[in-house]
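Run log, item B.
One chain of 468 residues. Sequence copied directly from the ordering sheet:
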Amino acid sequence: MRRNKLIAILVLCVFLFGTATTGAFATKGQPSIDITVGNDGSVQMSMKFKDMNEAKWALKHVLKMNAEEIIKGYEDGSFRPNKPVTHEEAVVLTMLAAGLKDEISQTVTDSVYLPFKDAGRIQSWAKKAVIVAVKKGYLDASPSGNFQPNKPASREWVTKLIAKALGLQPVSVQLPFKDADKISSDAAGYVAAVVYNQLISGFPDGTFQPNKPITRAEIAVMLGLSTSELPIPGKVRSKVEGTIVSVSKEVYQDVGSSTYGYSPQGTITLNIKGDDDEDEDEDEGDVNTSGTVTYPVAKDALIYVDGQSAALGDLAVGAKAEAVVDGNGMITYIEVEPVIVKGVVQSVYAAENKLTILQGWENKHARRYFDPVGVPVTYTAADGVTVVINGVSVQLASLLPGDVVKLTLNAGQEVTGIKASRFIKDEDKDKGDDRDGQKGKDEKNGQRNNHGKNQKQEKDDNVDQYEN
């Protein structure tokens, strides 16, 4: 409220004195708002934490999670993106991202048994969230029987927690990381499920670093992707998705109004698709909104177009948008992204810059991984298309049948970016080992013939599509 009044005074000064003015305002624990007012009365705003230059790659998700009131900054205006997250902090953030805020607040801590020897060390602000996580089966005690609330949470530990909150089932595959043997057996299946859904990836050197403490920036990205890409069981919808029908931009027209400081910067009308076509296990807490709805847009709303900061006037009619709505029904975050399609690679024609993928195979609960069925669709790759497999930049020709891909399309339906995950099936690896053993026996006994060679080559080629 006070911040909005200060903004009003600032703009009023511009009208009175006719000069361009700049300013910055911040609320404790929130990003600062930088404001630039031009001579023509135009106003540009941007929000930032003062130390996000340390993790620019995470900025969009950090601000999104902040807009959804899941993660906050510090009173000095910093976010401290590289600070490790503790076990109890990770649980609180994940439960809030799962839309369980009301359930947490209604939880009674008195006489509640927690299956941890060190339950008494859990701080009061985190205890209710831990209780909820235990009740829902998201948390396990360590081998020692402790929760270790103040211990930095490892990438493996958080990945397993988020996977369980998402309702993902563990997957038995050989993980594509150099240090896969360092991932504990009880977490490997969950790591595979989360990597498969491209909510987390490895490092450029091909490692996963499962025991590395996860940072505030990293968990913000994981949770940001989780709430965008997959429906979280129990998620109370605080966002809407739809096609932009119209945008109304009215900037500070009623300067003298006593309610000036509380008015939005404009409105946006979205055509929202209903949930009738979703699975029967759709959460009862979801808000079933459909049709054409107009929302006010907050003055300090975060607006992104194709990942870049933008103004309300930059939003194009017909574009697909995702918006975060606060408790007052006002939009605080808008994201307009290019079209994304998912599928499994069926074939690649690198010389022609084309690839065919199977679409419609996905199962959001991740029960099926290596027997995809779907409709084959062929796409053309744009010049300069970026291709990343398991976190490593490669050429289009490096894609193989069976790779799980996410394609980014431009307005011309050309592929501008490809993000792929590649796995090795345990059963295929075992078959390959068996064949290698048989090969030695055949060579020793001199029993191979040309027909056997050709048959063997075909089988090895099939295994290579996962191992390369």
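Observations after the first pass:
- DSSP finds ten helices and 17 strands in the chain.
- The longest helix spans residues 426-445.
Flagged for discussion on Thursday.
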